[in-house]
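Why should sequence recovery work at all? Because a backbone constrains its sequence more than one might expect. Tight turns favour small or flexible residues, buried strands favour hydrophobic ones, and helices have their own preferences. The token representation captures these environments compactly. In the example below, the structure is given first.
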């Protein structure tokens, strides 16, 4: 009889612990959903999102020697082909700095379109003289930090 009561109490404690763990888990999920909902409501109210810039440091793996214009043209054409002219205008990707000897550079893009730009880097750059792959190294918030990363790697 005592063993049955002890077993019953142990089972009750385990069930209570499981219920507590589940409650904590779902409260975390509810907080996350509320946070997302709040941002959506704020966007609907018309609060403008401040356009921030991000700097994407990249390296080139090439069989030839690509020029700055060739890289700019490739990214612009690929962005237009995949996402359209409107997205290109909103993202405003700009090749800020490129070291042709080292095969590295820095692109500036809107923070909302960083992933779009990085996904374009998977498309190989093919020209008459050379074939290249653009490899993203790191994304930063300042140009100073981007140039420092470009020199390091």
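From this structural description, the recovered sequence reads:
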């Amino acid at each position: 009889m005592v063993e049955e009561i002890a077993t019953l109490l142990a089972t009750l404690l385990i069930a209570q612990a499981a219920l507590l763990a589940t409650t904590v888990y779902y409260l975390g999920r509810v907080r996350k959903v509320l946070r997302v909902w709040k941002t959506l409501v704020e966007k609907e109210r018309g609060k403008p999102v401040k356009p921030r810039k991000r700097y994407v440091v990249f390296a080139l793996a090439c069989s030839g020697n690509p020029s700055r214009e060739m890289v700019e043209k490739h990214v612009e054409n690929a962005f237009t082909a995949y996402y359209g002219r409107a997205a290109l205008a909103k993202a405003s990707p700009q090749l800020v700095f490129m070291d042709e000897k080292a095969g590295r550079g820095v692109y500036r893009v809107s923070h909302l379109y960083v992933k779009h730009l990085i996904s374009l880097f998977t498309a190989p750059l093919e020209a008459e003289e050379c074939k290249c792959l653009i490899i993203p190294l790191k994304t930063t918030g300042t140009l100073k930090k981007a140039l420092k990363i470009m020199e390091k790697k």
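A few observations help interpret the result. The longest strand covers residues 53-62.
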